[in-house]
Design brief:
By secondary structure, the protein is an alpha/beta fold. It is 32% helix and 17% strand. The structure holds alpha-D-galactopyranose and zinc ion. The site of zinc ion (ZN) has 8 residues, from helix 6.
Length: 641
Amino acid sequence: MSSSSFTDRILFGGDYNPEQWPREVWEEDMALMRQAGVNLATVGVFSWAMLEPTPGVYEFEWLDEVLDLLHANGIGVALATPTASTPPWMNHRWPETLPQNPDGTIRTYGSRNAYCPSSSVYREFADKISDALGGRYAHHPALRMWHIGNEFGTVCHCDRCAARFRTWLQVRYGDLDGLNEAWGTAFWSQRYSDWDEVIPPRQVQYVINPTQDLDYQRFASDLLLGGFIAERDLVRSHNPAIPVTTNFMGFFKGTDSWRWAREEDLVSLDTYPDPNDPDAARDNAMTHDLTRSLGGGKPWLLMEQSPAGAGWRHIATPKRRGLNQLWSMQAVARGADGVLHFQWRASKQGAERTHGAMVPHAGPDSRVFREICQLGKQLAQLDDVIGTNVAAEVAILHDWDAWRAVELDHQPHSGFRYLDRIREYYTPLWRANITADFAHPEADLSTYKLVVVPNLYQVTDVAAANLVRYVERGGHLVMGPFSGVSDPDERIRLGGHPVPFRELLGLRIEEYWPLPDEPLTVESAELGDFTAATWAEWLTAEGATVVATFTSGPLSGIPAVLRNSHGEGTAWYVATLPEPAALARILGAACHAAGAEPVLPGLPPRVEAIRRGDKVFLLNHDDESVQIRDLTQDAAQDTAL
Ligand code: GLA
Ligand code: ZN
């Protein structure tokens, strides 16, 4: 295995759930997997009730057989701890293992993922089976990696979770005075006089305390992470050489993946873009870039995608011909060293009986399976990208706390959605084939030519100082609206916004001015006139150059876009939501000044270019084929977006 990757060939395969099928199907599976070039199967993700049919009684023989069979056919295994879904006996016999909603109702069994992460019964059974699997399979020759749980995200509001929450808060705030101060409980008679009074955000009469809400989101992520770590350490103790992962869901608000990724040996992703969504390729690219960035640029694994349709979708349109190959290549281009699917063979029963699969209901004589076989061949030719890196000159800041905080109740505009801001700023860069990483606001940014901050409503002092220093030392930065507003306790920073960035940006904001969606006109000699909507800010330039000014609406005459020289660098501030073409011009100007270049300039629209190692991947997302001219001739073109 190359030291820079978890694999020495591009991994290819999918979730394999053979416990749904009789033995003769297993034999056919092996032949078809070999035909398709499958080299990795994810096994055991939801097998708990089959592995432990009654409390403490394990039946591993069938799993022995599955692993041996896969191994005999040259196929490796990502073996899951089956702890995402409890067996009915556990929930029936120990009802406290079930999760509680904020209104006190219980989510019962009969589906999946129904467990209280604080339940000691759940924890003990989960640890025991993880340890038993580790003991039995950690040295099995088929084992390539551990897959802990599945898509962690269950949140519970029960009394046991309340007790765990209090412990978490004691670590964060020390004593009750610290908690009262941080949560601002002097308002609305919320002062706590005893730790036992402190509870999760549950069903309430009116708006919940925002810091209580925010802290519970942080706690819920950390609580699940504790479960991941417990199982990781158990399986690892049997053979530290086997890498450990769990499958992330990209921009999923429930888990702070920066914190999680540090605990993994490799980062993996489940991604299900909608084939009917014209922006799916962009969203997929964005998710790939996040996943690569979470692992610090190291190769990652595409753990799940559907080869066809996703059964849970409102309209489960299959992927058109070639689309699964295209999106798989996109993942490899953006740093994946493996492409897996959910699932190998389409279920004929159960909740996911209509979900796409590598072997569909029609069987191997099908478009989908033929395309899978082609994909296997294509991926097998890409071994020399393994372990190589994707170079990015631009960083886009992304922070789970800033996301959660800006979407708390009673923000000035309930339609102001964090991911919309991220997408708006990502889009023009993606269209121009300027590769971007995502970065945590406290990360070292010194290697980037340009840092883009679509929205950073809540910011720590450390992160704020990091951004200021980055610009002082010559960096280029573009910051979007409603940034730098609150501190980590969700305390508004006082005295004129954005307190930590006022000098950096050379301006002072007195009021945020959310608006209905009618377009406002904006005048700019430099950018050309444009429209903006939804958001404005009553601000004054204090040293910054005004680049664009509102010419209609209640803020007519007030600056909308500014640019400031600070130290050796330059910081732009965009105090509104410009129409896409105008935002593209702003980012284009910033890229140009920073020297951030497209991978290849002048490509037809919807052709994506990514450089990975010494290769350039060109991906055509259009239905029609396109002619690409000799690209080396065009290399000197400008970077206009
Ligand atoms: C998730 C799960 C899988 C499966 C797929 C279906 O990604 O991890 O078990 O349910 O969704 O899209
Ligand atoms: Zn609970």
